[in-house]
Amino acid sequence: MADTGKLHREKHVKYFKRMLQIIPGQFASLDTHRMTIAYFALSGLDLLGALHEVEKEKQAIIEWIYSLQVVPNSSGTNLLHCGFRGSSTLGHSFDTKKSQQQNIAYDSGHVTMSYTALACLLILGDDLSRVNRPAVAAGLRSLQQEDGSFSCVPEGSETDMRFVYCACCVSHMLNDWSGMNKEKTISYILNSISYEGGVGQGPGGEAHGGPTFCSIASLFLMDELDMSLTLQQKEKLKRWCIFRQQSGFQGRPNKPVDTCYSFWIGATLQLLGVLDLTNFLCSRTFILSTQSAITGGLAKWPDISPDPLHTYLGICGLALMGEPGLAAVHPALNITQRAADHLFNLQKVWEDGS
Ligand SMILES: [Zn+2]
User: Fold this and answer.
1) What is the mean pLDDT for each group of 10 consecutive residues in the chain (354 residues)?
2) What DSSP assignment string belongs to 300-332?
3) Which of 114, 116, 323, 349 has an alpha carbon 20 to 30 Å from 343's alpha carbon atom?
4) What is the pLDDT of residue 96?
5) In angstroms, what is the span from residue 280 Cα to ligand 1's centroid?
6) Integer angstrom CA distances of residue 76 from 79, 84, 93, 129
7) Ligand 1 centre and the CA of 341: distance in Å?
8) Rounded Cα–Cα distance for residues 188 and 206 (Å)
9) Count of Cβ atoms closer than 10 Å to residue 242 Cβ
10) Ligand 1: centre distance to CA 133 (Å)
11) 260 C-alpha to ligand 1 centroid (Å)
12) Segment holding 20, helix H or strand E
């Protein structure tokens, strides 16, 4: 039953804790992407001010994440495969004590898993000292295409704005941009701006809320948002984003509203400094209508089963609008401001030490 009025905070805390314990059968196909589910759950608990609820499990989760890091073998022949895996479904089996040198075929980093692994480590308070930063950067370099876009794995895959964003997050978090050619990345983003004002997955694509966020957040993380877009491009972009508000936000014109776009579009508007031009009451009412008061969790629409992505992004959307009881969110890195501040403190230490 759809429920508006208040955020069922305790239920959502339980929902995220459950997602950390076991993946429900309906999400079994996501087994190779378990890192992303851990990220939704951990960052969600952080937003809800409930990370202490997994205090006892924190260290075990950190060890699990590091066990999924693909590092260079003794001859360095797998350097382009370095980064983080999403789970031990493929490649070497789960073993936190096994030598990281024993990589086998199918052990390849995935750029989204590298981003979410680093995000999880930061959320958990880790100092990233066990991250092989040069190897992660080398892995990124192997993913960038001639047109500036990124694939997600070195074996080849679709290439689009999602992976551009993940590559920018990884580079920003590691304070190391040697994993990409920034000029090519910016060129790919600018070539993907549609006549509508928003941004598509690639050149010639229809403007869409997801890649619009990915591209604008990427420019922000590269410190290029102010300089790379013309005033007219910025104004058209703001207009396109603001017009995505119906009750909640939709991802494209004439599509139904969906909880996740309260973050994808909301965070873009926040980065552009105009989120307050939208109707917060309307957005809040829609987001709350998609939560389950029984199992906890939020769905893309009212009265359907919740999932971790929409639960997390719906709560993020509320946090952007200043919902009481929720932590502030860093709109470009998509982690709490608290976790981002932890990162910036680490980066200061790295800079002082170099
Ligand atoms: Zn959605």
Assistant:
1) 77 97 89 96 98 97 96 89 92 73 77 98 98 96 97 94 98 97 98 98 97 98 97 98 97 98 98 98 97 96 96 98 97 98 97 82
2) SSTTS---HHHHHHHHHHHHHTT-TTS--EETT
3) 323
4) 77
5) 19
6) 5, 16, 21, 20
7) 28
8) 15
9) 17
10) 32
11) 4
12) helix 9-21
Ligand 1 centre distance from Cα of residue 263 (Å) = 10
Distance CA 136, CA 143 (A): 11
Q: Which two tokens stand for residue 121?
A: 């480590």
Any idea where the domains of the chain sit in the sequence?
A: 1-7+244-354
Q: How many angstroms does the Cα of residue 337 sit away from the middle of ligand 1?
A: 23
Residues 6+ apart with CB under 8 A from 62: 121, 124, 126
Residue 330 corresponds to which tokens in the numbers above? 């860093």
| Contact by Cβ (8 Å): 259, 300 | yes
| Tokens 């991802």 belong to residue | 251
For 330, other C-beta atoms within 10 Å of its C-beta total 18
Q: How far is the CA of 259 from the centre of ligand 1 (A)?
A: 6
The predicted structure's pLDDT at residue 106: 77
- Residue 1: per-residue pLDDT: 43
Ligand 1 centre distance from Cα of residue 287 (Å):
11
pLDDT for the residue 301: 97
- Rounded distance from Cα 83 to ligand 1 centre (Å): 27
Looking at residue 93, its pLDDT comes to 82
Distance 300 CA to ligand 1 centre (A): 5
Q: What's the gap in Å between 305 CA and the centre of ligand 1?
A: 13
Name the CA dihedral angle for 225, 227, 229, 231, rounded to a multiple of 10 degrees: 110
Give the pLDDT confidence score for residue 5 in this predicted structure.
85
Residue with tokens 């804790």: 17
Query: How much distance in Å is there from the Cα of 248 to the middle of ligand 1?
Result: 11
Q: How far apart are CA 349 and CA 346, in angstroms?
A: 5
